[in-house]
Amino acid sequence: MRFLDAGESHGKALVAIIEGLPSGLEIDFDFIDNELTRRKQGYGRGERMNIETDRVQILSGVRGGFTLGSPIALMIPNLDHKKWTYVMGERECDRQKRVVSEVRPGHADYVGCVKYGFDDARNVLERASARETAIRTAVGAVAKLYLKKLGIEVGSHVVAIGGVNSKSAVYSASELIKADSSPVRCMDKQAEKLMMQKIDEAKKAKDTLGGVVEVVVSGMPVGVGSYVHYDRKLDYALMGAVGSVQSVKGVTIGNDTTALFGSEAHDRMYPTGSGVERKTNNAGGIEGGVSNGEDIVIRAYLKPIPTVMSGLDTVDIRTKEGVKSSPERSDVCAVPAAGVVLESVVAYALAQKISECFGGDTMAEVVDRVSRRRAR
């Protein structure tokens, strides 16, 4: 299973092609659109969220609501493109309009210009923009539908914003749907208020904030992934997927056990009538690169958004002079929305690994093989 996406922030559309999904998966269009709506929400989001409707169009690979086994093509039109055709037109456009040469520290602006030989970071930021995560959310929504048929759920919540931390607690993926009722997707109501205050402070100061998101996967069967080679390990796939999301600077799986003795850190196993059980989950659901049947628990650490409206010291790459960085329309804090995106990339990585582990050309075959694994 694989996918490829394309599109610019103010281009005509975002598109993706998913290859390798089995036939017979029922596609819930409302569910996909709801995931896109979830991504747009969250306290601290910018005005772009009020412009884009974000409804997916499926162009191929689905007939009568079910996958055919052929590549699935998805598209999300950018409604804002009509205001940007003079800048982002693929044929005629004014390449000297909306030039960005005062590159933003922390963004792809400078490094992208050096890599591809540009003196206008517009050519970089349009693709590097987190707008791209809209189509990845749609791809992840399809993956969630696949996982749901196998009894696997993915959820997330915000555990920190700007140094404000929620109370430590353990949640299953199904419980985390409650996080959506919070403006910052936090399960701790007291921390929620303090996080919102912190975002208000940042907005007033024309600044930005980062934070920490926890993603939880419930219902994973034992044995997905492999210990036999580095790139077949489940944690390798998940950390790479999560780390690929804009602003993510760190990823962990399970609890921090670095200060514990091994006798305290490792999750002891006890016999049950049909297998084993554990009373702790410090490993976060993965041992030796393989799922162990416990909830998979991932934390992603996101830096503050690089578009600081007050500007940062930088260099104009055209004049080589010291200047302040250019402001672009952006969010104050995208951490709550990032949780939805992270659910999506995790879901896709898991779907890919399950496909690798169990194969199957039809959903009936995949469901049967996963069921037999659970019965062991």
Q: What's this, in brief?
A:
By secondary structure, this protein is an alpha+beta fold. Helices cover about 30% and strands about 20% of the residues. It has one domain (about 1-375): Chorismate synthase AroC (Chorismate synthase, AroC fold, 4-Layer Sandwich), CATH 3.60.150.
If you average the pLDDT, what whole number results? 94
- Spatially, the strands of the biggest sheet line up as 8-7-9-15-10
The helicity comes to 25-40%
Biggest sheet: strands, sense, closure?
5 strands, antiparallel
Q: What's the helix-strand series?
A: EEHHEEEEHHHHEEHEHEHEEEEEEEHH
Reported by name, the CATH topology is Chorismate synthase, AroC fold
Task: Write down the oligomeric state.
Answer: single chain
Task: State the helix count.
Answer: 11
The CATH superfamily is Chorismate synthase AroC
The total strand number stands at 17
Tally of distinct domains: 1
Question: What is the CATH class name?
Answer: Alpha Beta
SS-based class: alpha+beta
Shape annotation: globular
Percent strand equals 15-25%
Low-confidence runs (pLDDT<50, min 5 residues)? Answer: none
* Named CATH architecture: 4-Layer Sandwich
Distance from first to last alpha carbon: 26 Å
Write down the Rg: 22 Å
Q: Which descriptors apply to this entry?
A:
376 residues, alpha+beta, Chorismate synthase, AroC fold, 5-stranded antiparallel sheet, 11 helices, 17 strands, globular
